[in-house]
Amino acid sequence: MRPVLEVLVPDGFDLWRVAELERFALLPLGGDLSPAEVGAAVASIAGWNAGDSDGNSDGNSDGNSDGDGPPRPADPLASFFHGLVTLEDLLVAGGLQVTDTSTGVTFRPGCCDGLEDWRDWYRFADGGGLLGFGHEPVSPLAECVGSTVRLTVNADEDDSPVIELSVTELRTLLDAAERHLADFLALATDWLPRHLPGHHAPVIAALARALDLPAPAPGPQP
Q1: Residue 3, preceding bond cis, omega within 30 degrees?
Q2: In terms of pTM, does the model score above 0.70?
């Protein structure tokens, strides 16, 4: 199990160096990312919260769909991060991806349960039932039957591949996924003051809130 982020670096982005990644590809998050990959991840998370559907910071003038937020700053960096640091409900498209290494089957996140909701998995592990992650044409579904968890790659298909594991195994995987997220946040906390001095503190706090993690100690000052 690995947390993955759906890449959304705005077209023509030039505020800092980012890795060249395919738009909407899934980037695994953890402590092993290169500086350029961290830059792409930070840009993508800010892009998903930029205030318009294309991930560009010039959509809504205030970066808030209801129009009652603070005005967007004129400074390009502050403007780009405006939605991330001001919106109450943050979106981090992606989720937790599970691969069965014995069969090669991969359970990918859907469109309806992003990384901002990753702790839903813990609630599912504790309470069982069903946990849906998307809708047609691809509907990933997790269900708990007794002590067994079934991860259906696409519940819209009768012959969809399935991953089965125990609830105990799921909790172990979730603990590892949480460490990956914490390692990424620590890496970003170190990266931000080095590459974006003067903007890092509110962005670090917003990233922690977006990923539902405790805010780490600030990285070294540039």
Answers
A1: no
A2: yes
